[in-house]
Amino acid sequence: MTTVAAYAAPAAKAPLERTTIERRDVREHDVLIDIQYAGICHSDIHQAREGWGEAIFPMVPGHEIAGVVTEVGSAVTRFKVGDRVGVGCMVDSCRECESCKAGREQYCERGQVGTYNAVGYDGEVTYGGYSQKIVVDEAFTVRIPDGLSLDVAAPLLCAGITTYSPLKRFGAGPGKKVAVVGLGGLGHMAVKIAHALGAEVTVLSQSLRKKDDGLKLGADHYYATSDPATFTELAGRFDLIVSTVSAPLDFGAYLSLLKADGTLANVGAPEEPISLNLFSLIGGGKNLAGSMIGGIAETQEMLDFCAEHGIGAEIELIEASQINEAYERVLASDVRYRFVIDTATI
Questions:
Q1: Which domains does the chain have, with CATH numbers?
Q2: Where does the Enoyl reductase (ER) domain lie (predicted)?
């Protein structure tokens, strides 16, 4: 075991504080990663404050991890010391079920093992990226291309793949009209990726406050959802809507913006349940879908795509001592567009 410094929430809703944790010794298929940057995801806040249900404490959040390999196990074949790598939202799965064999480990039938706030198949609690080092099986480690700097690459391990996966799955591309609901940590990546895929991109946000940003990021159009005229003007406009917000929406209103056979894909996860009049789906044969990150192969595909198109996250680099302040600013929508921790400051 190796002792490393980390930032942890000691209890639900408690401020995160500096502590130490134990990392396992490197096993034959493991890589030891010197973490250099860790993104702050809204999911970290949901879990640290038990917004999604009972959690495991102390909790070291962080599933947007970028760093460098410093040790490899005896059977490792994919990586060597010095490689630039990333770790996303999961660190293991059964690898035997239909989903795992199809490269969709995120939907593992036995249950994928989260990078933090989870218990691995070995019975050990997982701790995430707000720490100096992490030990991960090479099968759940991805290579960060040289064209991406590690700080802007870190958020791609969640925000990037969470938006890339549904955009690819539901056919965003030339000739398609795609709307992105919300321009935050997830939404700004959805805009960049949808634009790079060749789609016509519209941002739907509560106000026009971030309109200039949205257009610079690649949006063709920008509308305020607080204006009722938006829903009248855009009725039947879109092939695909990707909702990135973590607050309940009027799903009937957003479904009305789809063309026949269009899809509203949700990647944001509100803490509260939603209600839905099924006639808003039946009329027009529309689809209401969900999507959760992507498999390991798709995550690598996303990183390669982003490197090819010069896509990184828009970040605000912070010191570890600013994590609690950053959490409050995320809740206040006061970040453009992803906080990233310089883990050298832990």
A1: 2-158+313-345 (3.90.180.10), 160-290 (3.40.50.720)
A2: 14-341
Report the DSSP pairing between strands 200-205 and 258-266. Answer: unpaired
Q: Is the bond into 337 cis (omega within 30 degrees of 0)?
A: yes
* Number of neighbouring beta carbons within 10 Å of residue 135: 19
Tokens of 193: 């990726």
Given a contact cutoff of 8 angstroms between Cβ atoms, the answer to whether 341 and 333 are in contact is no
Amino acid at residue number 173: G
> Beta strands 65-72 and 30-39: pairing type?
antiparallel
In angstroms, the Cα distances linking 28 to 71, 74, 77, 126 are 11, 5, 10, 19
> Residue 117 is encoded by which pair of tokens?
């706030």
Q: How far apart are CA 228 and CA 85, in angstroms?
A: 45
Tokens for 268, please give them.
């944001």
Phi, psi of 64 (to 5 degrees): -125, 85
Q: pTM to 2 decimals?
A: 0.95
Q: Which of 37, 93, 60 is nearest to 341 (CA)?
A: 37
The tokens of 68 are what? 């460098």
